[in-house]
From TrEMBL:
InterPro entries: K_uptake_TrkA, NAD(P)-bd_dom_sf, RCK_C, RCK_C_sf, RCK_N, Trk_Ktr_HKT_K-transport
All residue ranges annotated as the RCK C-terminal domain in the record: 137-218
Domain RCK N-terminal: 1-117
Keywords per UniProt: Ion transport, NAD, Potassium, Potassium transport, Transport
GO cellular component, one term: plasma membrane
GO MF term list: potassium ion transmembrane transporter activity
Stated name of the protein: Trk system potassium uptake protein TrkA
Taxonomy of the source species: Bacteria, Bacillati, Actinomycetota, Actinomycetes, Micrococcales
Highest rank taxon of the organism: Bacteria
Keyword flag Membrane: no
The keyword Isomerase is assigned to this record: no
Leader peptide range in chain numbering: none
Membrane-crossing residue ranges in chain numbering: none
Organism: Glutamicibacter soli
Entries under Pfam families matching the protein: TrkA_C (PF02080), TrkA_N (PF02254)
Amino acid sequence: MKVMIAGAGSVGSSIARELVANHHEVLLVDLKAEMEQRADLEGVKWLIGDACELAVLQRVQLEDYDVVVSATGDDKVNLVVSLLAKSEFGVRRTVGRVNNPKNEWMFDDAWGVDVAVSTPRLMTALVEEAVEVGDLVRLLTLKAGEVYMVEFTVPHDSGMIGRTIGRVPWPEETTLMAVVRDKTPFPPSDDDVIEGGDEIFFITTPQAEPLLRRVLQAATR
């Protein structure tokens, strides 16, 4: 997979290292020439330039890339890069970093953003996950706000324990993605028995999320 990342700061660099380690082709675009001399990003291709400029994106032949990640610390830059990638080059998937949660509403398909990742929201979700066992936690917003990834940790005194997944009346527009048990993920089936401490991951919609929350609250009693 070919991935272009705009912004070689801590976020962009971390993403680049992970992708290279997983054998993907990565191009980092950054304005600062000194970034190219970094020794901690072996295997990454570089272009020093402004990713908001159409000529720069034409030079890298962005239409040949599968994914564009806008990971700078400036929300305006991330929106412009996503819009150009989608509208001018037809990139299949764009991921935009949201720095200021107040700007999150703009990171949608109108600006060419397929997936918006808000670092403050994600950190908040991870904190809530640690302290709010038994509550539904929203982790990511996908498809321009039309789909959520959410997580629920089963309390050890929950009424769900011992029931099979197929016996819980999950709402429509909700799909169970995975269960993590003892740090091991597995795909859930209707016959799997729920245990205390299970982390259950769902894909759901904004309309179905309140229904899912009510089902989980009722099932834990």
